[in-house]
Structure formats: structure tokens, C-alpha cells
Amino acid sequence: MAEAKTDRFTDIVFSWSLKDIFNENIYKNQVEKIPESFHSVQHYFGSYLYPLLEETRAQVHSSMETIYRAPFAEVVGFEECEPYGKNLYDIKVDFWRNRFSDRGKEPYKTLPGDLFVLADAKPETVSDLQRVGRSWAFVSVTDVSENKNEDDSTSRYFKVKASKECEFNDSTHRSLFLVFLENLVPNRRIWKGLHMSSDLKIMSRNLKIIKEVLCTDSVAQKNNFLCSETNDDIRDKWLVESLSSGLNESQTGAVLACLEMLHCDSKSTVQLIWGPPGTGKTKTTATLLFTLLRMNCRTVICAPTNVAITEVASRVLKMERLKVGSHIEDIYLNYRRQICFYCITASILHFYVLYPYSQELHFGT
């Protein structure tokens, strides 16, 4: 069900013509002002569907306008793959080029969710795609295969889904080119989240916390109020001093409101840090995480993109001072699994050593 929803998002992007992409009013009648309150969870999710599509259209539009600057490669292998009839293809490219990238910098690396223009000539402008006799299509990467025999790290072998059946005329012996436009993964994740209400299994796990964020749950709202009323003693002098540097009163209040929830007796608590662009949400979040670090509170940070995680982590760790630099990828979950496993295992073994003869100590797998 979830995969079908994300495929639906890609299909909508594929359905856009060049005229649609350059039409700023295509969703004019569907995009409405986001209300300050919502009738239901479904109303909340539905309010963001068309704004997300419009944002995606604008991103693709921007990429198409500067297509001459985009990374590109010549296709040297192209064939349909199973399941046949689904517009799925195996592609191999020679190497990636980027005329405008810094020397010594990797020009491009293929990633799942990347959106390309596949054309029988390298387009320098959008009008090149509209010439008589020109063939082109949108394609999106579904899987990337690393070739272990490669000397470089760029992926040249991958699978794509095309917006239509690709019938390029082999008799002309024209070359095929791929031109990178945008990565759709972040917006696909948001699209999937906005359709959460149609997946009963996912919805049942998340409905409570969603209602709490939207304050549609009066009990949760009351509990949060009681917690904030009974936990004013957290405003210790050392904590206020540590938060006041670089934060205004509103930002400091947001951090303290989050910290107060640590001592709340409710089973789950949610605080929303919100504000227009440029109001310091990232700085506020980084300060909150740094304070939790000082309190020896283990924290899991989630974000829709690695870029967002890197930005927050860089501020918390003060990258220049702590020399994190090129090793910033160590913060990602894929690099932390072994460390987390070691920490958890070590804690269990330590507990077992302290209580080796306990008859009520049980370990499950």
C-alpha cells in the first residue's frame, strides 16, 4: 500500500508535459490557504497535497530552466528489464560530466529517486526537447548497482522507470543522453506521510501522536498543560544561562517547553517548534539537542533528508572546532548500527554480571 502511494507520486510527475511544468497556475484552483485549525486528521493531511505537488513542479521547472548546467552522461547500454511492459529499463552510462563543477569534485553520483531527462541528443535548453523529430522521456532511478571493478565511485549501472515506453530509432544510430534534474525522494516521503490516513496499519500506530500535535486530543492537551504547570522547577539557573547565548526569548521558551516534557508523567509528549523561514528553528533545535547532550540524555534525531541531519549535527558538534569534517557521515544511522549494538550488548552483559544468579532474569530474542 505505501509503495503504491509513492509510485502514484512519481506517476503524477511523469504525467506533466513541458507546458504543465512551466505553467505556474496549473494548481492555482487546488492550492488553498492552509487553515489555522483542522476539522480532522484527514483534513490536515489533505491541505498539504496540492502545495506539495506545486512545490515539486516549481523545483522541476527551476531545474529545466538551467538544464545546460546539469550533470549528464551518454548512455552506452539500454534495454528493457522485467517485469516487461512496465516501462522499466536497465541503463549503463559511460561517465558523468558536469562542466560547471569544481575541479577535483565528483561531478555527480547516481541515487535512487533521481529524476532525469532521457533524450536522443544533449539538450542545452528546453526548446531543444521541442524540436521536430526529437525523442525524450522522464525517467526515475529505482535501483543502483555498484560495479566492484570500477576505479571511481560513481554509479554507472542502474534501473529506471520511464514516463512512457521508450522507442528510440536504432536506424539513425543516435546517441542517448541522461540529464539530471532533481531527486524526488524527500517529496515522495512527504507524499507517503500525507497518505498515512489511508493505511490503517500505519495510522493505528501514529494516530495518537498526530492528534497530540494537532491538539485534537483534549486529554493530551490537558496533560501537557498540567505538566507545564508542575515542572517550573526545571528552569534552573545553569540551564537558563546555557540556553540564553544566541537565542531570543521566544526560542529559549521553546527549548524550555520541550525540556519540561522530559519530567512529565504522561506516556507520550509532543512539542512542535514552528515558525516562518529565517526565525531560527534549526538553531533552536540544535540548542535543544546540545542541552540534552549536557544532561546525558540519549536522543534519536530523525529528518527527511541527510542534508537536514548534517545541518543540525554540524551546529551541535561545532564541526570546525571538533574537526568532524569529512567524517560527518558517521552520524547517519547506517554507520551507527554497530556502535548502538555494541552499547546495548555491553549494557546487557554488565547487568548479567551484576546479577548472575537471578532466577527472574530472562533474555529474549
From TrEMBL:
DUF6469 domain residues: 71-199
Tell me which InterPro entries the record gives.
DNA2/NAM7-like, DNA2/NAM7_AAA_11, DUF6469, P-loop_NTPase
A single Gene Ontology MF term assigned here is: helicase activity
Which superkingdom, per the lineage? Answer: Eukaryota
Q: Domain (DNA2/NAM7 helicase helicase): give its ranges.
A: 247-318
Pfam families tied to this protein: AAA_11, DUF6469
Name of the molecule in the record? Uncharacterized protein
Organism from which the protein derives: Prunus yedoensis var. nudiflora
